[in-house]
Write a structure and sequence with these properties.
alpha/beta; Rossmann fold; 46% helix; flat; binds the ligand Nc1nc2c(c(=O)[nH]1)N(C=O)[C@@H](CNc1ccc(C(=O)N[C@@H](CCC(=O)O)C(=O)O)cc1)CN2; binds guanosine-5'-triphosphate; binds magnesium ion; cytoplasm; tRNA modification GTPase MnmE; EC 3.6.-.-; magnesium
């Protein structure tokens, strides 16, 4: 069922210039006459026909495959026409213009699609729920294989299914409680009879498990931002290159080689790691050069926004007064909330790292020889909170994690009401309702229009 009247839309579904085959896609109710006028004949539903795509002058713009998916059996749930043409940007623009031209007579409200609008319609027409629609975009944007696989899993509905199962269990319990509220004389032994607290405990456990998988999924989607920081010449750029397995940043024995940040996304077990190499930190009286000073200011800005800071130390210089003073200065300025890993570099020089201070995360390695890198990778995964097998994860977003957390909070409050001496059943039911609604936000059962706008506007055009 269409929940609102929507104008037909058209877009090039493949990023122009990128694909060998490009698709122009039209979606809307009642496009039959338009298809007939554009292609000169009706098309057998859901069958690929090889045809000329003719311009106004009757000359073919291209020859390609056309497919008509009559609604509701299409991606959007509306009538859809696909023109699969050669993927050149000019050819696709010509076909798009031709569609708009033919539409003037046969589909006057046809307009260009907004980003994400095809998928938004699939959502509005109940072809996909909101978490699945988001997974479409996450699949396209996935930066690692593991992220793509888990997005695909969410797209098929694995995540939504778990959320819906939880919601159903909450509804059943709520109905039971509300029925009891209607018959107050039975209230007293309600909790024992139906084992409401036992049921609630079970729901909480399942919710925790889903929350954990969603948190892992969010990690796969967003990755973590890791900043390499330390004094000049300690080997930050060398470590970036070693982690990336490529000569990305310039390495020289000259202190102050890196002037501006160098970023690269690498992956560890499928978790995207956005690694940022920065200008070496020196105190402002040492860094007299304007360029270096700006570089250092940027380093501090990067540190502020980092999920983890790798504080590099040069084993060959430990104990030198000027060097040690520089170390203390940096340590004092690191934000208290920063998650710091102390990295003792140049282990190949034969100097042993100092004994780890209690509570400090530390690893000794050689960026040059490549030793100790695995320990660092494992430490970073641990720091990020990654513990899952990528096979078990479905992609999720911070928005989903927040909704699951809110649901868990309401369940905890419900447990409190059940445990209270007066067993406030009405409050118990109300918290269950709030938990249930929080989960509904994930799949978009009730979703504010501005949230939808925000979600779909981040899609690429044509999706
Ligand atoms: N050519 C083409 N390839 C594409 C897409 C597309 O829109 N066109 N997709 C766009 O993202 C993805 C596939 N998604 C699709 C999802 C549903 C239907 C569809 O026709 N669904 C009908 C019939 C289902 C069936 O036969 O079982 C339906 O749901 O009723 C088509 C594509 C990826 N590949
Ligand atoms: N022996 C040894 N030398 C290293 C190691 N890592 C880096 N170096 C050397 O240390 C010097 C500085 O390395 P860089 O990676 O440029 O250091 P940086 O911290 O990026 O320096 P700035 O960009 O100036 O802040 C170079 O001569 C590297 O070859 C290591 O593990 N062992
Ligand atoms: Mg450098």
């Amino acid at each position: 069922m269409l929940s609102r009247h929507l104008d037909p839309i058209v877009a090039i579904a493949t990023a122009p210039g990128r694909g060998a085959v490009g698709i122009v896609r039209v979606s809307g109710q009642g496009i039959g006459a338009f298809v007939q006028a554009l292609l000169g004949s009706a098309l057998k539903p859901r069958h690929a026909s090889y045809l000329p795509f003719k311009g106004a002058d009757g000359q073919p713009i291209d020859h390609g495959l056309a497919i008509h998916f009559p609604g509701p059996h299409s991606y959007t749930g509306e009538d859809v026409l696909e023109l699969q043409a050669h993927g050149g940007p000019v050819v696709l623009q010509l076909l798009l213009a031709r569609c708009l031209e033919v539409a003037r007579g046969h589909l006057p409200r046809l307009r260009l699609a907004e980003p994400g609008e095809f998928t938004e319609r699939a959502f509005l027409n109940d072809k996909l729920d909101l978490a699945q629609a988001e997974a479409v975009s996450d699949l396209i944007e996935a930066s690692t294989e593991a992220a793509a696989r888990s997005a695909s899993r969410s797209l098929t509905g694995a995540f939504s299914q778990q959320v819906n199962e939880l919601r159903e269990r909450m509804i059943r319990l709520r109905m039971l409680v509300e029925a009891t509220l209607d018959f107050p004389e039975e209230e007293i032994d309600f909790l024992q009879k139906a084992d409401a607290t036992g049921q609630l405990r079970g729901i909480c456990q399942s919710l925790d498990a889903v929350l954990d998988r969603a948190r892992q999924g969010a990690l796969l989607r967003e990755g973590i931002k890791v900043v390499l920081a330390g004094q000049p010449n300690v080997g930050k750029s060398s470590l970036l290159n070693a982690l990336a397995g490529a000569e990305l940043a310039i390495v020289t024995p000259i202190p102050g080689t890196t002037r501006d940040k160098v970023s690269e996304t690498i992956q560890i077990e499928g978790v995207p790691l956005h690694v940022i190499d920065t200008a070496g930190l020196r105190s402002s009286d040492e860094a007299t050069d304007e360029v270096e000073r700006i570089g250092i200011a940027r380093t501090w800005a990067e540190i502020e926004g980092a999920d983890a800071v790798l504080f590099l130390h040069d084993l060959t210089r430990l104990g030198q007064p000027g060097y040690d003073a520089g170390e203390r200065e940096i340590a004092a300025r690191l934000p208290p909330k920063a998650r710091v890993v102390h990295v003792y570099n140049k282990l190949d020089a034969g100097v042993q790292p100092p004994a780890a201070e209690p509570g400090n995360r530390a690893v000794a390695l050689s960026a040059k020889a490549g030793t100790g890198l695995d320990a660092l990778r494992q430490l970073l995964l641990q720091l990020a909170g990654w513990h899952a097998q990528p096979e078990g994860v479905f992609i999720a977003r911070e928005r989903h994690v927040q909704a699951l957390r809110r649901a868990a909070e309401h369940l905890a409050l419900a447990q409190g009401h059940a445990a209270a001496a007066d067993q406030a059943l009405d409050l118990f039911a109300e918290e269950l309702r709030l938990a249930h609604d929080a989960l509904g936000e994930i799949t978009g059962v009730f979703t504010a229009d501005d949230l939808l706008g925000e979600i779909f506007s981040r899609f690429c055009i044509g999706k």
